[in-house]
Amino acid sequence: MSKGIRRMSARQARAASAGAIVPANDRGSAIEAFSFGDPEPALDRSLLLDMLQSPHNGRWYEPPVSREGLARAFRTSPHHSSAIIFKRQQVLAAFRPTQWLSRAAFAKMVQDYLVFGDCYAVKVRSMGGATLRLDYTPAKYTRRGVEDGRWFFVPGSQPEQEFDRGSVIQLMQPDVNQEIYGVPEYMSALQAALLNESATLFRRKYYLNGAHAGYILYASGEIDAASTDALKEQMRLAKGPGNFRSLFFHSPSGKESSIKIIPIAEAGAKDEFLGIKSASAADIMAAHRVPPQLLGIVPAQGSAFGNPVDAVRMFERNEVRPLRDVFLDINDRLGVPAVVFEEEADL
To answer: For residue 75, what are the CA distances in angstroms to 79, 85, 281?
Structure first.
């Protein structure tokens, strides 16, 4: 048998046959293997909610997507909220108030339609049953009843109220999983908007933490206790109001490698902040289909977005006009021209 190679004992052979790996210099220890991280489900909760469609409590249906969550997500990313506000303003630009619908009520309806995927108008009737005007009811708290024609106003902190039967007009964006409530078209980019917010909050907390030194100061050699205490005090002052200050340390009898700085905060400094922000912003703008130059975004160095006038014309034809046509359905269901748009002059 060659030098350095020995025959396994009977005990080692039995252990190897059971799957254990025993090193050659066995001293009663074996190589340990482990895994970490929880298993990820193949179907997460959002997919399960899609399967459940719109559950009901016997009186009204619950939306398939949390209205509270959509309301909070509205302000998660500047690109997300800015695109919605820009679309709302473009639709309002050509709207003309009528005796049935005010500009303020219509603006709220348009914003709800873009944020939640549906909006609601409530008929205010006379004693004789004629429609006098249309009021706005928040989509966040409006629920469709199980019985046809019944609608409920369900605020979280107050008792629910039922609308008069047949008084609620609903406009909604179509959904492939159910036909009770609308679902906003930007759902595919919602995770990108949340990622954008998380990256911003992480970077903000990183700076608020104040401990930007982020390194181990390794000192050796002939350094007395007084110098060590002075160095400790200066390091304490590097956090909070005293951060970003330079530090000078002199060791007359120290060697070239007596003091070493070992960075440990590179993970926080190299979190690809700009890459995350750029990629998530691109996903959000793709979902809203708003040209970047219309949102006030500055092009990258060495690039250009093109003529903004052409972008406005294309956006007006492909996005704004179809969005306005959705609200003309109110006239058909109401029987009066409550929603009126004036054609804007070409730019």
So the answer is: 9, 11, 14
What is the token pair recorded at 185? Answer: 């078209």
pLDDT > 90? residue 341: yes
Q: What is the pLDDT of residues 198-255, one digit of tens each?
A: 888 888 887 777 655 556 666 666 667 777 777 777 777 766 555 555 565 656 666 6
Distance CA 64, CA 173 (A): 13
Per-residue pLDDT of 43-77, as tens digits, reads 454 544 454 567 788 899 999 999 999 999 999 99
CA–CA distance from 133 to each of 27, 127, 246, 339 (Å)? 89, 13, 69, 11
Structure tokens at 303: 């690039």
Q: Which regions of the chain does DSSP assign to beta strands (E)?
A: 95-96, 118-125, 131-136, 142-144, 151-153, 161-162, 168-172, 215-219, 259-263, 340-341
Q: What is the structure's pLDDT at 320?
A: 93
Could you tell me if 181 and 175 are in contact, meaning their C-beta atoms sit under 8 angstroms apart?
yes
Task: With beta carbons less than 8 A apart as the criterion, state whether 53 and 177 touch.
Answer: yes
Neighbours of 22 (CB within 10 A): 17
Find out whether 182 and 172 touch, Cβ atoms under 8 Å: yes
Following DSSP, what letter does each residue of 149-174 receive, concatenated? Answer: T-EEE--SSS--EEPPTT-EEEEE--
To the nearest 10 degrees (0 to 180), the angle between helices 78-93 and 273-288 is 30
Q: How are strands ordered across the β-sheet holding 151-153?
A: 142-144, 151-153, 161-162
Gap between the Cα atoms of 169 and 300, Å rounded: 45
pLDDT, tens only, 143-184:
999 999 999 999 977 889 999 999 999 999 999 888 999 999
Please tell me whether residue 142 adopts helix, strand or coil conformation. strand
